TrEMBL record:
<comment type="similarity">
    <text>Belongs to the peptidase C40 family.</text>
</comment>
<dbReference type="Pfam" id="PF12913">
    <property type="entry name" value="SH3_6"/>
</dbReference>
<keyword id="KW-0378">Hydrolase</keyword>
<dbReference type="InterPro" id="IPR027017">
    <property type="entry name" value="P60_peptidase_YkfC"/>
</dbReference>
<keyword id="KW-0732">Signal</keyword>
<dbReference type="GO" id="GO:0008234">
    <property type="term" value="F:cysteine-type peptidase activity"/>
</dbReference>
<dbReference type="InterPro" id="IPR039439">
    <property type="entry name" value="SH3b1_dom"/>
</dbReference>
<dbReference type="GO" id="GO:0006508">
    <property type="term" value="P:proteolysis"/>
</dbReference>
<protein>
    <submittedName>
        <fullName>NLP/P60 protein</fullName>
    </submittedName>
</protein>
<keyword id="KW-0645">Protease</keyword>
<feature type="signal peptide">
    <location>
        <begin position="1"/>
        <end position="38"/>
    </location>
</feature>
<keyword id="KW-0788">Thiol protease</keyword>
<dbReference type="InterPro" id="IPR038765">
    <property type="entry name" value="Papain-like_cys_pep_sf"/>
</dbReference>
<feature type="domain" description="NlpC/P60">
    <location>
        <begin position="320"/>
        <end position="474"/>
    </location>
</feature>
<dbReference type="Pfam" id="PF00877">
    <property type="entry name" value="NLPC_P60"/>
</dbReference>
<dbReference type="InterPro" id="IPR000064">
    <property type="entry name" value="NLP_P60_dom"/>
</dbReference>
């Protein structure tokens, strides 16, 4: 059969063929998927592709734009959290000077000798001599009878550690995701009080509003009390509303170049600049010029301008606390790898939910154990003997943004479908029963959408069986 040269095709026929092809090329990527593909099941029980879109859940909300708490309500909630929750620290009220007994108690509360065998990244047991050296680095014998209280601002996303070391240790050989010395992280602009330093002076033991632990000294700039504690209230400002954004790369000021800024950070704007003058070698008109803390060579604090592109996911204020915004903010982390204690430049389950709420200007305790029992939230508590009917009724009543706790884990509710509650959560595991009744260990290891009901806590119990509490943010109607 003779093949016709395309050049001999009549113009009208060529345009009829090219029109749909050109239109298809101009469609957004999501339009290439057929309805069947968009709603195809995933390999995770009860989850279809369409359910990985925040819009799917927002469309199912009865009042997606209802304001749960306004600015005044959030301020009152934060005041309640600071007054009633023992895990929240007022670093402005610490004793000055610091007594030896107070400092020693704070360090020993965190840095107690490990009671079990630990393993390094190569699967070898950490020798007793290494652990003994860590105890020596605590320099408890060097704590003076009293020392002046110093304040500082964190200048770079930095790990908070149980001991003054970067050594990563694990509970079993080969299981190298959960570093048992990793506690949490602090972010640029977070205020700390310095309580102590390691023997080699490379680490500081600091207290922040939500956590006390060891941090590398190079990530903290020491300043006057007023400028450190006042940084968080400076205005005007922008708020990071993306999962993360980065300052613009600059060789002119490496201290604030390509700096990771995580969701909920409030960044004061640098004012009084000539808008026609370059900032760090770049014209600033297409950027927000923020004022970031930086560390001088002697460890002291200064503030330097940095650029955040106007294309970055930031806002000129905290977001309105609505069900739709809660779902939207949570889904910005979808697929991020799980990071125990904020390792891997990511976050864990409690960090995930606290940073979602931080983008609304709301204070939430750092750890799951503290969040689950916080008296400053509206808690529904469960005891081991509570019957299944009570638990199921509570699950059916979950609202978007509610926090559901099981031992060691927290999830955020996003909606209901097919008689099941659906959650978004940052999980290192995940499992359910397969078709043959055996337990499937999914290893989700990241921010995931799952139904709550089929998830297994162990071979015999579900997550619902092991719920310890549900925490809800809502206006306080009674004392």
């Amino acid at each position: 059969m003779k093949v016709r040269d395309a050049r001999s095709t009549p113009v009208r026929r060529r345009l009829a063929w090219a029109g749909p092809m050109l239109a298809a090329l101009l469609l957004p990527a999501t339009a290439w998927s057929t309805p069947a593909q968009a709603d195809a099941p995933t390999s995770v029980i009860g989850v279809r592709q369409s359910q990985l879109d925040p819009g799917y859940w927002i469309a199912r909300l009865e009042q997606p734009d209802r304001v749960i708490l306004d600015r005044e309500g959030i301020a009152a909630q934060n005041a309640r959290m600071r007054a009633e929750d023992a895990s929240i620290q007022d670093i402005a009220a610490l004793p000055d000077p610091l007594p030896r007994g107070f400092v020693r108690a704070q360090v020993e509360k965190l840095s107690s000798p490990p009671a079990r065998s630990l393993y390094d990244g190569q699967g070898k047991e950490v020798p007793p001599r290494t652990l003994a050296n860590l105890q020596r680095e605590l320099a408890l014998d060097a704590i003076p009878a009293s020392r002046p209280l110093q304040y500082g601002l964190v200048v770079h996303r930095a790990a908070l550690r149980a001991f003054p070391t970067s050594l990563r240790v694990f509970s079993s050989p080969g299981d190298t995701d959960i570093d048992r010395f990793q506690e949490s992280a602090l972010f640029p602009g977070d205020a700390v009080a310095v309580l102590h330093e390691s023997r080699d002076r490379q680490w500081l033991f600091v207290a922040s509003e939500r956590y006390s632990a060891w941090i590398e000294a190079r990530h903290v700039a020491l300043g006057k009390r007023e400028e450190v504690l006042g940084y968080a209230s400076r205005a005007p400002y922008i708020v990071v509303t993306g999962a993360t954004v980065r300052t613009t790369y600059t060789p002119d000021e490496p201290r604030v170049s390509a700096l990771q800024l995580d969701m909920g950070l409030r960044l004061p704007l640098r004012t009084g600049l000539d808008p026609s003058q370059a900032v760090n070698g770049q014209h600033p008109y297409a950027s927000h010029v923020v004022d970031l803390p930086a560390r001088r060579a002697d460890g002291s604090l200064e503030f330097v301008p940095a650029l955040v592109p106007r294309s970055a996911d930031v806002a000129d204020d905290y977001l309105p606390l609505t069900p739709a915004n809660l779902v939207t903010q949570a889904f910005k982390f979808l697929g991020e790898r799980y990071g125990w204690g904020h390792s891997y430049d990511a976050r864990d389950c409690s960090g995930f939910v606290s940073e979602i709420y931080r983008s609304f200007g709301m204070l939430v305790p750092r750890n799951t154990r503290d969040q689950a029992v916080s008296p400053a939230l509206d808690r529904i508590a469960f005891e081991p003997g509570d019957d299944a009917a009570r638990r199921q009724a509570a699950v059916r009543g979950l609202q978007a943004g509610d926090l559901v706790y099981i031992p060691g884990h927290v999830m955020m509710a996003i909606g209901h479908e097919d008689g099941m509650a659906y959650m978004i959560h940052d999980t290192s595991g995940g499992g359910w029963r397969g078709a043959d009744g055996s337990r499937v260990r999914a290893g989700l290891n990241g921010v995931s959408v799952t139904p709550l009901d089929p998830l297994l806590f162990n071979d015999n119990e579900t997550y619902v069986d092991r719920m310890t509490s549900i925490q809800r943010v809502r206006p306080r109607t009674s004392p």
